Amino acid sequence: MNAVLEIKADAVIHNLTYFKSKLHSSTKTLAVVKAFGYGSDAVILSRILQKSKVDYLAVAYIEEGIHLRKEGIRLPILVLHPQSNNLSELIEYHLEPNIYSKKMLIEFLKLAKKQKLVDYPVHLKFNTGLNRLGFHKDEVTNIITIINKEKLIKIQSVFSHLAESDDVSDKRFTLEQINAFIKIKNEVTSLLNYKPIFHLLNTSGIINYPEAQFDMVRLGIGIYGFGNDIKITNKLQNVLTLKSVISQIHTIKKGESVGYNRAFIAESDMKTATISIGHADGISRKLGNNNGYVLVNKKKAFIIGNVCMDMIMVDITTIRCKEGDEVVLFNSQKMIEEIAIKINTIPYEFLTMISQRVKRKII
């Protein structure tokens, strides 16, 4: 057996339900499944979420949305970062673009006119301080005037993104963003004869700024069991478990080395197990040389030597085990966070590092 990433459906539903309990009954939910569902499996996650009746899905790129459509996902899908070169495919697969610049707006309107579209759903993003993507707040009147000239497109939603919603030590900047978005909302509303969806909050925003939930919220890392706050994370359930197996056990004599560059030298006789997973699967080289560990029969076995592309070696001197036994790389939010700290990153990045050659399995 090669490495397997288990995805627990019940945990996804639990986490979704928890966040919904923080919302008004009328507030819609958008689930972010970009980057292979934060490193899990976008199709598996989307099927669970579709059955759980979320209102929207979001992906980063058009190709991600097309993949979901081909796998039978019927929910509306917002494409957060569409590119001009494949907008025709976006329309073909009934995906909804985030229009974030005047250049993008003109290009999409030109295509919409060519294809004789009527009221095609689009989303407008405004930059309120993250300075990543989005129209400037001073462009509202100009942008809405352009859209109102013809009935080619219809604004499905207007949104922005918070820069530091997870940091409550200084709320000033976030409150400034919220107030800026309220002004944008009021201006957009005054210029339209219909009401689009307005949304601003991400996972941390739901936790820390529930008063700014508007019409919809965007759930990302929260679905996967992280609240960016230890108290909230403890109320969520772990969704992902990464497992592999022991391929071979070795007896190492004192003075012998293990792995590339002889990075580990045995100080006494010992036993090692070779595990079928490596840095090509997302196990960082920084976890080698006793920095990271795995669980073998529920006991910690530290990674010795350098992490190889397809394998790691661990110290099992004091652990009773045999070849073929299951090995757990992580099975809790705590373990994922520990790994992230050890490789100097955050759970988001570590989870998205998990290679697509690792088999996904729904539990």
In short:
With 363 residues, the protein is of the alpha/beta class. 31% of the residues lie in helices and 24% in strands.
How does this model look, in words?
The protein is an alpha/beta fold and 363 residues long. The chain has two domains: 9-228, Alanine racemase (TIM Barrel, Alpha-Beta Barrel); 240-362, Lyase, Ornithine Decarboxylase, Chain A, domain 1, CATH 2.40.37. It is built from twelve helices and 18 strands. It has an eight-stranded parallel sheet. A six-stranded antiparallel beta barrel has the order 10-13-16-15-14-17. Strand 15 (299-304) and strand 16 (312-315) form a beta hairpin. Helix 7 (140-148) runs parallel beside helix 8. The protein starts with a strand and ends with a strand.
Please give the structural blueprint.
Blueprint (H helix, E strand, L loop, with lengths): L3 E4 L1 H12 L7 E5 L1 H6 L2 H10 L4 E4 L2 H9 L6 E3 L7 H6 L3 E4 L2 H13 L5 E6 L14 H9 L4 E7 L12 H20 L5 E3 L3 H6 L7 E4 L10 H4 L6 E13 L4 E2 L5 E2 L4 E6 L17 E4 L2 E6 L7 E4 L10 E5 L2 H10 L4 H6 L6 E4 L1
Parallel strand pairs: 1-18, 2-3, 2-9, 3-4, 4-5, 5-6, 6-7, 7-8
Antiparallel strand pairs: 1-10, 10-13, 10-17, 11-12, 13-16, 14-15, 14-17, 15-16
